[in-house]
């Protein structure tokens, strides 16, 4: 008996097709599995990062409103602007008292600038002017600038508290100035 070659080809062809068709779903499965695991790990990693972020809240750490600025003898007569950037205050010394002006315009809250040549504070926003004691005399500002609470500590240093502000009517109250 003779075996004919075409019969062998006919038998091999379905086997190859079967092998190909069985490996195709396996490849798809692998891809699918990889996708699922990538998603799972991505999800877990994101949650872990969120968990870590929880320990670093987006809080604004503001400086304490109470601080020391030195001794009365550190300030000469007139306006001292050295704490303007750090604490938003000016220290003013007159012949009989020392007080601290909170550097906020009473019109809409801008920070005025001290002009030594004109001997006044000038607000850059709408032009209000204040004399060296913070009393308004020009522009739209409705009242003088507020003063911060001041007192001397046990060592004689000036302690300023900008959480307690004194308005014009309270300028002669204890705490609104330090007598010299
Ligand atoms: S905010 Fe100062 S004049 Fe308007």
Topology:
Blueprint lengths: L4 H49 L12 E5 L7 E3 L3 H4 L1 E5 L3 E6 L10 E3 L4 E3 L6 E3 L4 E3 L8 E6 L5 E9 L11 E2 L1
Antiparallel strand pairs: 1-10, 2-3, 3-4, 4-9, 4-11, 5-6, 6-7, 7-8, 9-10
The structure holds FE2/S2 (inorganic) cluster.
FE2/S2 (inorganic) cluster binds next to loops.
Characterization of the model:
The chain has 2 helices and 11 strands. The strands form 2 sheets. Strands 1, 2, 3, 4, 9, 10 and 11 form a 7-stranded antiparallel beta sheet that branches. It folds into 2 domains: 1-61; 66-179, Rieske [2Fe-2S] iron-sulphur domain (Rieske Iron-sulfur Protein, 3-layer Sandwich), CATH 2.102.10.10. The chain is of the alpha+beta class and 180 residues long. The longest helix is centred in the N-terminal third of the chain and has 49 residues, at 5-53. The chain binds FE2/S2 (inorganic) cluster. FE2/S2 (inorganic) cluster (FES) binds next to loops.
Can you describe this structure in just a few lines?
Helices cover 29% and strands 27% of the residues.
Ions and ligands: FE2/S2 (inorganic) cluster
Strand % is 25-35%
Which CATH architecture of the largest domain would you pick? 3-layer Sandwich
- Radius of gyration (CA) equals 39 Å
Q: Any idea what the CATH superfamily of the largest domain is called?
A: Rieske [2Fe-2S] iron-sulphur domain
N- to C-terminal separation?
132 Å
What is the count of DSSP helices, taking H or I runs of 4+ residues? 2
